[in-house]
Predict the structure.
Amino acid sequence: MELKDMSLEEIISEIKESKVTKKEVFDYFMDRIKKYDKQLWAFNSINKDWLNDNDWILCWIPIWLKDLYCEKWIRTTGASVMLEGFVPPYESTLTSKLKDAWMSSIWKTNMDQFAMWSSWENSAFGNVFNPWGEWRTPGWSSSGSAAAVAAWLVPATLWTDTWWSIRQPASLCWIVWFRPSYGRNSRYWVFPMASSFDCPGTFTRTVKDAALLYGLMNGEDSKENTTIPWKDEINENIWETKDLKWIKLWVPKEYFEEWLDEWVKKTIEEAIEHLKSLWAEIKEVSLPMTKYAMAAYYIIVPAEVSTNLARLDGIRYGHNSEEHKGSLEELYLNNRWEGLWDEPKRRSIIWSYVLSSWFYDAYFIKASKVRTLIIEDFKKAFSEVDALITPVSPEVAWKLWEKVDDPLKLYLADAYTVPSALAWLPWISVPCWFAESEDDEKEKMPVWLQIIAPYLHEQRLFEIANVYEQSAGWREKMIPKGFE
């Protein structure tokens, strides 16, 4: 069995049993990157100093990072002109934890600029392509990380999620994503987007790999005051579960109404029938506040985005325009106009509006109250069931540039991910099967299943997702054509 056919857990086991050396693992994945990345454009940069350091052979396995995890003296750009030459003098908590576990990063994966946009067409360093379909979107801001794992150029990657940044690319690229409850993983020295939403997580090939990395990453961080003050230890007994008896799963009817493509709906319904065959009890219930989630989200998030972007002025660090600067105002305008692309600008303008003294109460305060009602909506639901089953995206991966001129259409693609993001819940997505794309009935594209659990119930997610994964039998079909 080749390394590309193994899970992260299996590769680590092979190293421990001396069946393969750490250098052989490193060389194998480097060779695949050199061979295939020109087809994907999934990576932004490589840490050449690390490559030249003999200590690299100490790592168990290389883990690649979305280009907004700060590593000491390693270029970190946010895929933006604004920080194109930025080399941080500090280390994120999560990369420190992984290095303590003998995992190392040498590449930074491509992404939407500062994690903003909805189809991965907003990076200063080129477009990432979906390995499952030529010239199709690989998803949202974490798409470089997702495409790299999907093509098996890397065994696992780290990403960040605000409301869809990982669920969409993982789903459109057909791999496993996992996001814990807000506060489980530290955000310390990870570029922020919207601070009350941002959550770091993982892309992997299996559910157990996601749990492995979660076990290393989660826990309190004294340097970051939103972290949960205890560590969640994985109960190994959950991997022994073979069916879903006594498990109640909830299918929100609102998620199967507007926007959902018929091919995606059909494939998800087949997956639900499969869950029933595993003895899960399926209930259809309602989340009445779902219809307000998008409106609330697109008021709260731009406000937080603009606050975080305000520090990027090109004075202390970042892009410094060569245009004439006759005043401080011109300096700010020129630096930010050249360094930030359309989506960061768009969200900054929305923020200026909703947080202005005239509209603060009318918009921002009301949106915050709606967020509270959505949280209560989920709490009520989880008093009756163990988890929710939903689609992730209303359609399969579409062509690049197909929707770039219509931000509203791209925003509506987030309809199934925004409500749970507002409620800080943990989620996992597992490959479902393939559906025919809407524009070519002969072309098969991946479909996915999203599982949402109550706040701080990550192990329930792992247990349900692992049972489904083991019984579905799709793992051998996870390498896209052309990347074998």
